[in-house]
């Protein structure tokens, strides 16, 4: 064994011993606050997407978080993240949804409620759900539970004051970052966390690639029980949405509200 290998062996054994010496409650606390960045293996050629290799599936099942709906049913759930408004795109999205008679949920931040009250009111008036995307868009895995609860309460109150809608059952954690502690805190406030099974890199407003790009990225991933994540700041999404909906209908899919999700699937 070389001197370097011997040193690595000593360091490795020392680290293992140090970890083993951690009090059980410290190890539990570390697991409780460990951050996870949501990711998944995309659907391809009709094969369902998967989170089985991501390391957090048991945690999502424990807290009832959503990845997929019922994969035996040709149902789709359309979800939008609205951190801020750009170029009137949400209005155009709402126009398409109204024309096609398709329900959706919009996950909004405190900034969005404050700056776009008329659009928020339109969302609820036209029968869409409004979900919680936190007040200030922080990494909520780093926050103590009381701060998580405050972030959520501030959005819910602002939406209720604006629209009269008191019900807010769904949450999408900013940037898809979560922890056991964060999921537990939000669940205690009555929220179900909504992740996704279809997505693509659509949030960069300086790197839009056209409606065809959005259309291809979404429609090639379609699968039963899919939760589709789109960012409302994407001009590609706004331009392609009508075609995406038409193609999904052509393939025999029905768009449903999250309130209609009867079964959650984990795989």
A few lines on this structure:
The chain is α/β, with parallel strands linked by helices.
The geometry reads as globular
Count of distinct structural domains: 1
Q: Helix segment count?
A: 10
**How many beta-strand elements?**
9
Q: Which architecture per CATH?
A: Alpha-Beta Barrel
Distance between the termini: 44 Å
SSE run:
HHEHEHEHHEHEEHEHEHE
The percentage of residues in β strands lies in 5-15%
CATH classification class: Alpha Beta
Binned, the helix content reads: 40-55%
CATH topology name, in short, is: TIM Barrel
Radius of gyration: 21 Å
Can you characterise this structure?
By secondary structure, the protein is α/β, with parallel strands linked by helices. The chain has one domain: Glycoside hydrolase/deacetylase (TIM Barrel), CATH 3.20.20.370. The protein is 43% helix and 12% strand. It contains ten helices and nine strands. The protein has helices at 3-20, 24-33, 57-63, 89-100, 110-115, 117-125, 145-163, 180-188, 211-219, 235-250, and strands at residues 36-37, 75-82, 105-108, 129-132, 170-171, 177-178, 192-193, 226-231, 254-255. Strands 2, 3, 4, 8 and 9 form a five-stranded parallel β-sheet that branches. Strands 1-6 form a two-stranded antiparallel ribbon. Residues 1-22 have low confidence and may be disordered.
């Amino acid at each position: 064994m070389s001197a370097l290998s011997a040193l690595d062996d000593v360091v490795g054994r020392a680290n293992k011993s140090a970890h083993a010496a951690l009090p059980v409650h410290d190890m539990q606390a570390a697991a409780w606050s460990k951050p996870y960045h949501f990711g998944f293996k995309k659907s391809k050629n009709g094969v369902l997407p998967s989170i089985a290799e991501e390391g957090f599936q048991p945690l999502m099942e424990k807290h009832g978080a959503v990845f997929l709906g019922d994969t035996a049913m040709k149902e789709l759930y359309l979800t939008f993240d609205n951190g801020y408004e750009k170029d009137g795109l949400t209005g155009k999205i709402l126009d398409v949804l109204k024309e096609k008679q398709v329900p959706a949920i919009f996950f909004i931040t405190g900034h969005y409620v404050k700056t776009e009250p008329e659009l928020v009111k339109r969302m609820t008036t036209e029968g869409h759900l409004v979900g919680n995307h936190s007040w200030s868009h922080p990494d909520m895995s780093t926050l103590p539970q009381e701060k998580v609860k405050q972030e959520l309460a501030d959005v819910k109150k602002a939406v209720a004051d604006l629209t009269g809608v008191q019900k807010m059952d769904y949450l999408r954690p900013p940037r898809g970052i979560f922890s056991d502690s964060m999921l537990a805190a939000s669940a205690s406030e009555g929220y179900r966390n909504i992740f996704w099974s279809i997505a693509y890199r659509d949030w960069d407003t300086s790197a839009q690639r056209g409606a065809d790009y959005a259309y291809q990225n979404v429609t090639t991933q379609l699968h039963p029980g899919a939760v589709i994540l789109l960012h409302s700041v994407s001009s590609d999404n706004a331009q392609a949405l009508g075609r995406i909906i038409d193609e999904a209908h052509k393939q025999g899919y029905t768009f449903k509200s999250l309130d209609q999700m009867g079964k959650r699937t984990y795989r």
